[in-house]
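Budget justification, computational time. The allocation requested in the original proposal was used primarily to generate structure tokens for proteins on the priority list. As evidence of use, we reproduce two of the resulting records. The first is shown immediately below.
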Amino acid sequence: MTDAAADLRPQAPTLTGRVLRNVLLPLAMTWLVGTVVAVGVANYFAEQAFDRAMLDDAYSVSANVEASERGVELVLSAREVTSVLFDQSESVYFAVLRPDGALIGGQPGLDAPQPEDGSTHRFSDIVFEGRSLRAVTLTHAGSNPFRVLIAQTTRARNALIERLLLYSIAPQIALLALLAAWLWLGIRRDLRPLQDMQAALDRRDVSALEPLAVTRTSRELETLTQAVNALLDRLAQSVSAQREFAGNVAHELRTPLAGIRALAEYGLAQREPQAWREQLERIAASESRASHLVDQLLGLALADETGFKREQLRLDEFVQKAVLRHLPAADAKGVDLGASGLDDAITIEANSTLLEGIVDNLIDNALRYGGRMITIESSGRTLSVVDDGPGIPAEVRDSLTERWSQGPAGRTMGRGAGLGLAIVARYARLLDADLRFGAASPEGGLRVSISFKDA
């Protein structure tokens, strides 16, 4: 996917935003439901208080209705009724009615539902002269029955509900905003190590695979850092294996390629077709050995990844083949190459590719830096390559198993790349074999021994 196409994709939400949303939305909904319930309860009790006050007014008016010669009469004057029903914020209406609806006193046309059976009063919502009113009807039984009706506007009730909503919702909104700010700061603080990890990875070079510092601010972040470090460790091992494989290929192919070139140059210097044929046959044989070597190296690389197969090998037969394989090169250098201890048939459990790499590298090193005699000794399950050369000082022998490390003879002669013995040491570890260096004799020389475990 191109960068332009990637820019057109909608960006994923930040972890901070998602956490805030998942926390604040349910909390806000919970607060909202709680506010509605609280306001509903407060409204219910406020309505009860207003209705009770209006019912008290109805009882006050009812107490001033008396029987007379002309029937039932309201003994209060209009001014006195106004004083009894006075309210600063509401408009109050009243009427005193006979059972047949005839007006005794008060506002003509004012009416409301009568109480149901068994009840002395009833509250209701009515419309009078185009205004919505809250009304109460109070009945008076006896020899002179009548009913008193009180109605008033609801401005005070509505204002009280609005104040309840305002005083309930506004503080909660403010608290929610403060909580959001506190959560945002806390989440950013807790996620800062994650941002630091990202910044550290962004600043790294592609070759920097050292582990990250583990930040112990949270268990999840610590686990994530450990997982990233485990991945970096696997990548480092893979890169190291690739580099080692490339070095092994370069080192191992140098000798057969040089031999092929020498054979070709020698053949080109000859005049007779028979000599050309002989050299071409040798070139073909050397190319076959080089191809086999490439297969061995690829097999080693595969062995590092998936393991390798062990098999039963005759150590004496393996040594004989190795001597015959290196004999032409030894004769060309005037070196006496031989073997000893091959009378006993010794069987070991190993991999032919790795074992061949061990023996070939030891013989090749001896031909490069040894003297005039090289002997391959087989003693039980131990294979030794012995030469009568200058040897290697004891203090530098262990370092020769490291890659790119050379002994004094190699540095003096300017040959090799310091990989031969490192490859031998690695192959020996893969075979669980013991690699040892020692002097060939009191006079000098070098003995390199490989001891294999019992099958």
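The second record produced under the same allocation is shown here.
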Amino acid sequence: MIQTNFDLKPFNTFGISVKADRFATFSSIEELQTVLSEHQNEPLLILGGGSNLLLTKDFHGLVLKNELCGIRVITETEDDAIIESGAGETWHNFVMKCIELNLSGLENLSLIPGSVGASPMQNIGAYGVEIKDCFESLSAYHIESGEIHTFNKEACAFGYRESVFKHHFKGQYVICSVSFRLKKNAVVNTSYGAISSELEKLGIEQPSIRDVSNAVIAIRQSKLPDPKVIGNAGSFFKNPIVENAVYDAIKLNYPEVPFYPVDEHHGKLAAGWLIEKAGWKGKKIDTYGVHTLQALVLVNYGGSTGNQIYDLSSQIILDIESKFGVTLEREVNIL
């Protein structure tokens, strides 16, 4: 059923109140085909969990919420299994299901907000893991032709928080399902320092995938605000990849600056560290600001507009460029 003049506040984790001319949900390909055939040549926005989105204005078109659900193991061998999830499943619930089945590979990505369908669009990642590490394929509905197309890892062209769906194919497809190849014999990744520390604190020397998941959940809950309590979209900025010379220049004044080599000539700086050093962490302006525990997270304490939060992000970008000679890039999609 199409609803008109629909408030999208409950459907974005920033809790921004903007209106959509029309809104509907779909839980099958047939429902998707029907509603699209009735609203051809109309601006279209597909919503998953609304967790990587900043809405700055009303949407004059059709908003469709993806509710394609279902999780199943497609094939399995002695060593691994391919598990498929509907794009509308909640990402964290899917990760918990994989752990329940004792399939490893995604446990470091526990508690990331959003839907399964959004995961390959962003190539989501955390604590030393990205979904491309165990991604198998996805199926997507081609809006113009009405055909279902399959994309393997190469076709998705994954990069750092990037995929072909963010640029080249933006707005052309609706992701329907995503498949991952996961290990039956767990090879846990605890290389990210905070995980090791958390496990050590719990006295766990030989962690299971559930132990790693619990450690990640504890870490995230300790420093990231719950979107149900404080509006936010998680990390607002990407960690910038810079030339070694840029790092060397910053290191002259800040010897403690974190730096993670990417290749011989480039490395990754921690955007949160830069923002905190520039004095933005915990800064509050009326009903919005920068989170008190994690400088990467911009927050809506209630009643803020998307434009206010966007303007705050612009001020931060300019300040970091002025202080460090580094240009931050927004990770969140702006509409």
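A brief technical remark on that second record: DSSP finds nine helices and 20 strands in the chain.
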